[in-house]
User: What shape does this take?
Amino acid sequence: MKHLVETKMIELYDTTLRDGTQAEDISLSVEDKVRIALRLDELGIHYIEGGWPGSNPKDIQFFKELRNVRLSNSMLVAFGSTRKSGIKTKDDPNIKAILKAGTPVVTIFGKSWNLHVREALKITMEENLELINDSIAYLKRRFDKVFYDAEHFFDGYRMNPEYALKTVRAAEDAGADCIVLCDTNGGTMPYELVKIISDLKVHLSSPLGIHAHNDSDTAVANTIMAVREGIVQVHGTINGYGERCGNANLCSIIPNLKIKMGIECLGNGRLKRLRDTARFVNELVNLPHNKHQPYVGDSAFAHKGGVHVSAVLKKPETYEHIKPELVGNHQRVLVSDLSGRSNIIYKAKEFGLDITSKDPVVKKILKELKVLEHQGFQYEGAEASFELLMQKAMQKKKRYFKLLGFRVIDEKKGEDETSYAEATIRLEVNGEVEHTAAGGNGPVNALDRALRKALERFYPNLKDVALIDFKVRVLTAGEGTAAKVRVLVESGDGVDKWGTVGVSENVIEASWQALVDSLEYKLYKAGKKKKKKR
Assistant: This one.
């Protein structure tokens, strides 16, 4: 068998809807699973493993729903196990459930490690071989394709190579279309994996696949090395979700194969959908985006140091290993106390501001930025606040209102009573004084509601703004409740999202700063759109 660097195509097999949902903190509804399956189909994944119909009602319902959906690029796969000991294949409940799922492809797993045969199944080694052979042969007569997951194959091969080989030969003899080698415990090192696959190829003629877990942080590396050894089918999940430490991350594997190794695995133009797919799945599993994720994370092509930014502006490849647009990402430049003039110029262009490196305002912004960051301000997650800072330095920042004063009262009447907060605020807007109050479930919530109540009469579009995230971080450890805190607020209006920041020893004051920036940015943004239309 030749190395895959000479092969035209690799098959991508996604198990996000089965293995991915076994991750801690992840639970998908049937509707969620349907939407993810459709998105994976758009991306061009060859096989989508929908779940284990014999294990839970949700997966049974999912396969029923997908019968009415036509996939354009993908084949749906049902997952299950070999028949149980002492039961005929046709009578096994798990096998029956797989048949009812009605998919064109099925994947079943069996035991490769003699330890599991003895301790988990508690059957003889010979009977385990019969389970594998009988199940695959039975399913092969009823499905277009049958894949065999050789569970714990690498652990089994290390302990008893002769028996591990017998298990995959039993699958091959039964007609399995692909034998997938599983590093189920995720403990195999790349150099071990290479040697085992190399040894195995001498004894098998069936196409091989790889299913790697990430417990040693080597799942992607193991997958890449397996491909170089002749593997033709790659298993993984979007964003690497999976049990324990996760599965091999398809969002890293796919661009590594296609861009780095020149191996076809997605149709033309589909690689650009990778970042959007990763973020879509993040949203549906209700987990925050991993900004440091390779290729698709927000920080994957983000530059902070002034020297780096200066070089990237001249020639991006100086600090970027690929063009970010290839995977649907984009270059970002961060601003911090490490920033140089190049960072400021880049951000100005990004914000549509016309300044050059020789403009005195650049030096002014840099000086103020370093002072503010020394105080605890951070603009990497609060670019809206930084854009307002630049506007202020250029003397272009508009005053939408003037604070005349606010008061916040937090009251708790009894030990078992819920606390209640009320905020009173006085503002001057366009020469008119607005004095109002609002209650809330906490002092920050009350202040936010009072501020909005006072402003929405003058600026109705503020009703569109919603708080998405609110984070408080202690900056001066050791000072207890007197510590300085930084508040980061993420807001959105259904179209855009933006971040703002505030810093103070008083958490309400810090929150006030971030909330004001959030609303002012919405008004500033609306003003920019009006100017563009003119």
Notes: DSSP finds 17 helices and 16 strands in the chain. The chain has three domains: 4-267, 302-393, 401-458. Residues 302-393 form a domain with the Recoverin; domain 1 fold (CATH 1.10.238).
